[in-house]
Design a protein that fits this description.
Blueprint: E1 5-10, H1 21-28, E2 32-35, H2 41-44, E3 52-55, H3 67-79, E4 83-88, H4 98-107, E5 111-115, H5 120-127, E6 141-145, H6 158-164, E7 167-171, H7 177-186, E8 194-199, E9 207-212, H8 216-222, E10 229-233, H9 240-243, E11 255-258, H10 262-274, E12 278-281, E13 285-289, H11 294-301, E14 306-311, H12 314-326, E15 338-341, H13 344-351, H14 366-375, E16 381-387, H15 392-400, E17 405-415, H16 420-428, E18 434-437, H17 440-450, E19 459-462, H18 465-473, E20 477-480, H19 486-495
Bound molecules: S-adenosyl-L-homocysteine.
S-adenosyl-L-homocysteine binds near residues 172 and 198.
């Protein structure tokens, strides 16, 4: 029988970019994933579609899955021979009950591994601009649980902590905040000792406050601080005024919806997140290769009859390559044909296969691609591999200079609406979101998924003129990139309206 195993993975504190490479590999090859409440959606999106997902952090009437039950689930799934990932917020072994979860597995001789995570105890202060140690201020760091059992006093040796003179970091301390500060004051810490709270750290909703030991409870109450939050006490807190980098990111506080197909959303989303945006992926279209694509196969069979091969999207390139590889061929089947790509994104896809475009137009759209081809004065036929409903501007340009071509539809774009409700809530919320559109078909997919609704609150960030025109047809307010590239689109979003 196949031996199962459990990998305990730390998912980091919230920012999905803080997942480790090893953690990511474990998630991507999991058969079962058992996860907690604090794990971000972008990390959950890495779970393979066919893997079983078990949410043990669900609060149904404030009733969490009891620890013993979680331990049992891990054991049962491993004994079934499954590769189980137990995904936990921050680091599994820091106030994460990781140790408890391994006990039962060890007893039963089940194989396990632990992949440490970036802990909120250090990363959350860091995103709040607070280095937990600094040679000028302290020589130790102490991480303490501020969890207080109902009706019981806090089990913390405040006198010992005060004597260390080090930075104190409290987790799970929001409800006991006043008691924690009082405990430290009673133990002799100066009332004007800098102290901070960072709520929902490393996420777009992060809120930080800087106060002193004596004022922190009141300020936190005023600002309605809620869990999860980290309390930091120590002189390093004052550095947050100087090092407050995360709150200063250009897209901090902005909500952005990315509408690319799932497999292409990653880089745009990551780059927007790195600028501080609150990104929601809404893959409202998907590209489906035509299968079998007899026309494309026949065209490749007589590839020598063509002088140029034209791609209008990365999906065209990947569809062709998939077809070649799955029929036991490779790029050599393309012979000496010249390659034209609509823009740098499509060229990048070619480069993945050791090819590069001989021609990219100055402006990255169908009409300019057609014109650029005309200027090359082809003497042979042109083969276009693109989507159903591709723009007629490309072929119109070729017609106008009497170039002969075959326009083959090798994939189609289908509308999908996986998380429509989540997006609808965002669109009707207080904060006006920006929606990115990287093609006219993403605009149509978006409108098809959401149906009739008031779009006046939304700003559509469009990659080019054709996309912009489509967005306007749907009554969207638009901003448009100066050039049809991700760089220019991101730049335009940063510039704002
Ligand atoms: N194992 C986790 C901690 C689990 S205890 C880790 O290493 O980070 C849960 C506590 O962690 C919360 O009560 C809060 O104090 C802290 N925490 C976790 N994520 C946080 C975040 N994004 N922002 C602020 N505090 C966080």
């Amino acid at each position: 029988m196949k031996m199962g195993q459990v990998i305990l993975v730390g998912a980091g504190p919230g920012d999905p970019g803080l997942l480790t490479l090893k953690g990511r590999q474990a998630i991507e090859s999991a058969e079962v994933v058992v996860y907690d409440r604090l794990v971000s959606q972008a990390i959950l999106n890495l779970i393979p579609e066919n893997a079983e997902k078990i949410n043990v952090g669900k609060e149904s009437a404030h009733h969490l899955v009891p620890q013993e039950e979680i331990n049992q689930i891990l054991l049962d799934k491993a004994l079934e021979g499954k590769r189980v990932v137990r995904l936990k917020g921050g680091d599994p072994f820091l106030f994460g009950r990781g140790g408890e979860e391994l006990e039962l597995l060890a007893e039963h001789g089940v194989l396990f591994q632990e992949v440490p995570g970036i802990t909120s105890a250090i990363a959350v202060p860091a995103y709040g601009g607070i280095p937990v140690t600094h040679r000028d201020y302290c020589s130790s760091l102490h991480i303490i649980t501020g969890h207080q059992r109902a009706g019981k006093p806090l089990d913390i040796r405040f006198d010992a902590l005060v004597k260390t003179g080090g930075t104190l970091v409290f987790l799970m301390g929001v409800s006991a905040l006043a008691n924690i500060c009082k405990g430290l004051l009673d133990a002799g810490m100066e009332p004007d000792m800098p102290a901070a709270v960072v709520e929902k750290g490393t996420t777009p909703a992060q809120q930080s406050i800087l106060a002193t030991l004596s004022t922190l409870p009141d300020v936190a109450k005023q600002k309605q601080v809620k869990s999860p939050a980290i309390i930091i006490v120590g002189r390093v807190c004052t550095l947050s005024q100087k090092f407050d980098w995360f709150d200063k990111l250009p897209l901090k506080g902005k909500s952005v919806i990315v509408t690319r197909p799932k497999e292409r959303a990653g880089t745009l989303s990551d780059r927007l997140r790195a600028l501080g945006a609150d990104v929601t992926e809404f893959p409202c279209i998907e590209t489906i290769p035509c299968k079998p694509c007899t026309q494309m196969e026949q065209a490749v069979e007589r590839i020598d009859a063509y002088q140029w091969l034209v791609f209008t999207s990365p999906a065209g390139v990947s569809t062709l390559m998939d077809m070649l590889y799955s029929t036991g061929r490779d790029v050599r089947a393309l012979g000496r044909i010249r390659l034209a790509a609509i823009g740098p994104g499509t060229d990048r896809e070619l480069r993945k296969h050791g090819l590069h475009a001989d021609l990219i137009p100055q402006v990255y759209d169908g009409a300019h691609l057609g014109e650029a081809l005309c200027q090359e004065k082809p003497t042979g036929r042109v083969l276009i591999l693109r989507a159903q409903w591709g723009t007629p501007a490309l072929t119109a340009a070729l017609d106008s200079c009497k170039i002969s071509y075959d326009d083959i539809r090798c994939y189609e774009t289908r509308y999908t609406c996986p998380n429509t409700e989540q997006v609808r809530t965002l669109l009707t919320g207080e904060q006006a979101p920006i929606v990115t559109f990287t093609s006219a078909s993403t605009v149509n997919g978006f409108a098809a998924a959401l149906g009739d609704m008031d779009y006046s609150n939304i700003t559509a960030a469009c990659i080019g003129a054709q996309t912009e025109a489509e967005a306007r047809k749907h009554g969207l307010r638009t901003i448009t990139a100066s050039q049809a590239t991700m760089d220019a689109l991101i730049q335009r979003i940063v510039e704002g309206e």
